[in-house]
Amino acid sequence: MQIIESGLQFEGLWARSETSLIVLHHSASADVTAAEIHKWHRAKGWSGIGYHFVIRKDGSIERGRPQEMIGAHAGAGVNGHSIGICLCGNFMQQLPSGAQLVSLVELVVWLRRYYRAAGGSELEIKLHREVGATQCPGTKFPARQFDGLLQLAMAEEGGEQMEDWKAKIIQQAKDAGLIRDDHHPDEPAPKWFVLTVALNAIKLAKS
After folding, report:
1. Range of the domain at 152
2. Helix 191-206 vs helix 98-117: crossing angle, to nearest 10
3. Number of folded domains in the chain?
């Protein structure tokens, strides 16, 4: 996974004392750069872009606000302990791309490993509308499919080791139409497999 450094300049940032949550957003716009969102948020009088990461339509991940700094994306009661990830697009009108979902899963898995290695707790993941009065990240964001992808990826990364748990996830993926055949719980899932699952999730969400 590659994170593209944006080189953005900020003023008046404060470091987070804890990190326990990831909040998912959409830009409610066309495909834009982190630098463009930075301009929007500066125009509001903010220090700069409020999200820590921006995922473009082609799946590329751009750095927004510095990762360890308090963001401006989900309200005062949430920003102080959370990381904001914004996917480009208006998911009230369209679905995220398969490439975006794959990159989102990779980024979330990486962040969970990073903070777990630093001695923190497992990061919880919530949609913006679950922590604030908004429809963000849009009614077409495939939350259930994303959750299934993430659980498969975490199993691959060693996030869980219980055999019955992994078997349950595989069965859920089959029931949801994300995979057709059994996938052995200890068999690594190559990138093409994860991408196939993502594309199937998009297909199901469109139907």
Report:
1. 142-207
2. 120
3. 2
